[in-house]
Structure formats: C-alpha cells, structure tokens
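USER:
Try writing one entry.

ASSISTANT:
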Amino acid sequence: MTEFTTTEADAAWASINTPLTVETLKYFCRDIERLFRINPMLEFYNWKAHDPQHYFFSGRNISQENPFEFEFELTVTELPNGFKIDYDRGIKSSTEFIIEPAEQGSKLTITDRYEAMPEDERKQHIDKVDKSLVTWANYLQRFLITWQRWSGFGLWRWYMSHIWQPMKPAGRRITYMLLWITMVEIALIVLGVGIYFAEYA
C-alpha cells in the first residue's frame, strides 16, 4: 500500500512497504539509473554516469497534461538510512530515499523537495512540477515484489537489465500486452488440441 502526503509549499512524499531486507533495499537503490527508469512517467533522452555520485540526465516528463522536457546534473549523497539526490536546476531541489525496517521487510519513503526555489518563483513554474511521485512509488513497489521473487534467476536479471530497462514506458506496455496475447493464444491452441484428442483419439 502506498501512503502519500504533500505540503504544497516545500515537499511531497510517498511511502511503500517492500519484501526486501533493509540492506538488500539499500543495495538495490544504489543503482540510481534503474530507480529513475522504473518511473513510467519519465522518457529518457540521455543518461551519463560521471562517477558513482554524479550523473547527467535529460528526458521528457509525461506526468503533466502538457509533458515537459528536462535536463540536469544529479549529485547523489549516501545518508545513514538512505540516499539523497540533488538537482542542479529546475523547480525540484532534491529527492530523498529513506529506508527503514518494517514488520515484514522494509519501508521506503521517497520525498521530493522544492525548498530551494522561492515560492513566488515556484508558482511561475507550476507546469514543470513532477506529478509522478505516487505512480513512481507504486511501480517501485511492484518491481521490488517481482525482484524478490525472480532475481535469483540469471536469465530474468539479464532480460530486465538489457531488454526491459532501456525500453520506453510505451514499449514496456506494448510488450506486456503482446506477451499476454501470446499466452492466451497458446492456451487456446492447447485447449483445442485437448478437445480434439478427447473427442477423436
């Protein structure tokens, strides 16, 4: 279940429960590119890793009614209980990933902060606010549940890293639908063969 809270002036945050241990979740979150690529509201143009703490990221955010393009440098700081990502420009100043133990697994809280830009100036850029936070949290939760179940299989990890992750969000949706259609077709073929042998064999 995703919890969502917002304070219009400075920050918005969402929390999810995950089946991973605290240490496993911290390890997972160290892959900054993967974290952003799981967000289905972001279309990647370019991603460059200068080093493990500094990245360049450009793309298109489709969370607004009128999608907008973005380009910024990211600086990642490891915290005692998570990570903080600072943006060098734009209306959003930082995103924090706070990891805590939970009754079963761990809890991840994602906080988008807008405190660096004065409020009057923020209002002038309201069309550039990232509204993807809740959707991102929900997709992260689903991904982590699937990761817990299947990450022990090398072929699955290879597919997710080399095929799924570079896909655009629209491409993932199309692939998902095609897989379901293929599975239904196979099931119908098997059913047809079964009926044939039941009646004529």
In short: Helices lie at 22-29, 32-38, 119-124, 133-150, 154-164, 169-200. The first strand starts at residue 3 and ends at 7. The domain at 3-152 is CATH 3.30.530.20 (Alpha-D-Glucose-1,6-Bisphosphate; Chain A, domain 4).
